[in-house]
User: Fold B-1,4-glucanase from Eucalyptus grandis.
Amino acid sequence: MKKMARAPIFMVGILVLCCFSGVTRAEYLKYKDPKQPLNTRINDLLSRMSLEEKIGQMTQIERSVASFEVMKKYYIGSVLSGGGSVPAPQASAETWIDMVNDFQNGSLSTRLGIPMIYGIDAVHGHNNVYRATIFPHNVGLGATRDPALVKRIGAATALEVRATGIPYVFAPCIAVCRDPRWGRCYESYSEDPKIVQAMTEIIPGLQGDLPAGSRKGVPYVAGKKNVAACSKHYVGDGGTTNGVNENNTVTDWHGLLGIHMPGYYTSIIKGVSTVMVSYSSWNGVKMHANGNLVTGFLKNKLRFRGFVISDWEGIDRITSPPHANYSYSIQAGISAGIDMVMVPSNFTEFIDGLTFQVKNKIIPMSRIDDAVRRILRVKFTMGLFEDPLADTSLVNQLGSQEHRELAREAVRRSLVLLKNGEGADAPLLPLPKKAPKILVAGSHADNLGYQCGGWTIQWQGLSGNNLTSGTTILSAIKNTVDPKTKVVYEENPDTDTVKSGKFSYAIVVVGEHPYAETFGDSSNLTIADPGTSTIGNVCGAVKCVVVIISGRPVVIQPYVAVMDAIVAAWLPGTEGQGVADVLFGDYGFTGKLPRTWFKTVDQLPLNVGDPHYDPLFPFGFGLTTAPVKRN
Ligand code: BGC
Ligand code: BGC
Assistant:
């Protein structure tokens, strides 16, 4: 009865005023009625759309070229923030919301009022946004071996992203990194496809739990506190020869299916809304032009029903040099099955090019309809038509204390203890909180930017402590030791200073400088200068624990003997307190290597299961300690 009474009021919302030859009348639009079945809404809307409107839906542009007018004029279906692309430096959540809503109002002011979907790389928390919680990068999460924890991180990230008015993230990266020389190796949970598969639990965290009985392959987003996810980069991104970014993955069908594909099976079962195509090639064929794998396998065989998005200028890079033959790129990419193109800047070139090809029957209308149908399916499913505009109700979620506690927990769980003293000195950890005087050293001890790594505030990451709010490892140590313990910090002390300092022990924090795509590719995998001399100077003179901040295993074999204890901390993010929690025994070490730790780079690639496997520390290695009982 109550429902019946409410219905007419509700109906008013879906009656729109239309003007036809001067006559104003209200029209009932089926697609705007959330009571209609999903497919009815999609079909109804699709039947009303012009070619221009359809191609607009398939176009994703960067926020720097977006505006109310552009959204309206070109019927743009989606906007993104590239790495580090923000409405203003240190923008507040409200500033983000205002920007997103402005673009959205442009979309809503079009004839059919189809909402746009805003997407962003939230790959370790909402990492472009000032004061967001920055979680450990995926490699560290792989070390936790805890999918339930990763799911909670997904839910927290979704809330922080929604806090800024954004409903879509380009995460998770489910690459299976098979060679740490790849600069994106830290975006990969593990070299082991089973761990990557398990960590797809982040998808129900981001999108919300799939209702029981959901049909396989159908995208799902629970509501306004969740976001659409994107499994990327399909497929084989982590398998390129010598770990060269965007390069060629050489493996047979069995290798592709067994190593790089399992994460996609699981993602699809879990209702992932979108899949991003990889820049890389498989056996010489660019994935952005691979119809067999994108349409044949992903859409037809695996029955993925969400939309496929290209990578940034991904279709341009089908040719070398990139953009050498854009009309060919459009044809090859759209024909392969890409539904939405991350253009991201020169959108009129894309729109005009695709329009020409459809009008000239180079690309069939059925292909365009498939793409638009998928995009609309995601938008309808997630409730974007009912709730296109963001409000400020979630702004307090951004960088909340609760999320920082969760990140701190993740840091604790991600630490892998590789060595813990020798002989009479073992175990060295946990360290005593009470000591007359201790030394903290190393380039990474007091550098929030370094401990966050790439994809933090800026695309390639930053150095220093002013990029966002968080706790450096040095501050964490100071917070944790006994108030009477004197903490001396010297970034790179010489041996004499250390010797004469009468320190009870030292903590040395060194590692890699931040990097992301391409810039992070490395063939030597060294600790950044002067890290190894800091290790030598300090560890040669006093008992030391070395904490390594890196996106991957690095060369340490020559220094293992001099380092009394070694902790792999990966790229922990803003909550450095988690490192001190474990060093001083408030919690035990539990992390396990998600990757093989090589002896020398000429062993690479080196993965668990390889013949003649001879690592420095094997995949799965990790010493444990018990928490210290204190009262
Ligand atoms: C953008 C990144 C993007 C990259 C692609 C950068 O300028 O900020 O988001 O991934 O270009 O090359
Ligand atoms: C990266 C993607 C990212 C996109 C947008 C690309 O360069 O490969 O992972 O989602 O840029 O920033």
DSSP finds 21 helices and 19 strands in the chain. Confidence is low (pLDDT under 50) at residues 1-13, 15-23. The chain has two domains: 41-129+164-396, 403-603.
